[in-house]
Amino acid sequence: MPEVPAPSTRLMSNPAALVPHIPLPRLELLSDARTRGAECVWGGERLTVETAIDLGKHTDNGFSWFPRACLRCTRSAVRTARDTHPDRCTECPGPTSLCDTRRALHDLLLELLR
């Protein structure tokens, strides 16, 4: 059986481009461990190199932070972003059609479900 790569290496080639479409918790509500990426930004689970999904560097009011997440929470956040995207998108022709961003969110979710 082939070895399954860690979630952080299994992601699409450029998941960081989708992060602006995936709402993160407000920075001022997060613990130091969550802003450093030691814990899941959503659920608070302790993360390791093998379990963490890197959500890229963020800068808010001059403060740089590095959120990471567990696979379960990332799946949930991407699913929610994909499902609510048409409500905020002027390019989506309808709830059953996919603009480029919604298609990329859908593809990322499929990748995360593997």
The helix content is 25-40%
Shape: globular
Mean pLDDT: 83
Number of helices: 4
User: How many beta strands in the DSSP annotation?
Assistant: 4
Strand neighbour order, sheet with most strands:
1-4
Based on secondary structure, the structural category is alpha+beta
The overall number of domains is 1
**Rg estimate, integer Å:** 15 Å
Describe the overall structure.
The chain is of the alpha+beta class. It has one domain. Helices cover 35% and strands 9% of the residues. The chain is built from four helices and four strands; from the N terminus they run ααββββαα. It has helices spanning 7-10, 32-36, 71-88, 100-112; strands at residues 53-54, 58-60, 63-65, 68-69. It has a two-stranded antiparallel ribbon with strand order 1-4. A two-stranded antiparallel sheet has the order 2-3. The longest helix has 18 residues, at 71-88. It is globular, with a radius of gyration of 15 Å. Mean pLDDT is 83; it is low at 1-12.
